[in-house]
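To whoever is on call:

I kicked off a structure prediction for a single chain this morning and the downstream step that reads the tokens threw a length-mismatch warning. I double-checked the sequence; it's 58 residues and nothing unusual in it as far as I can see. Pasting both halves so you can look.
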Amino acid sequence: MKEEYGVDIEIVDLLGVCNHVIPQEQQHWVSPTFICKIANGTPKILEFHKCEQIGWFF
């Protein structure tokens, strides 16, 4: 989050873990997803070539 959005975060809880199996590419990814809160900073896009906008969704 610091590199992409300029904020420090605090992990609150583990939301879930997902297996991504891509047989044709011989890849297996394990992706944990966390509930976090901003500990310091204001979010802004720092990698303009990867992201056009950010938003919060409930």
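Update from on-call: the warning came from a stale cache, not from the record. Cleared it. Sanity check on the structure: The longest helix spans residues 2-5.
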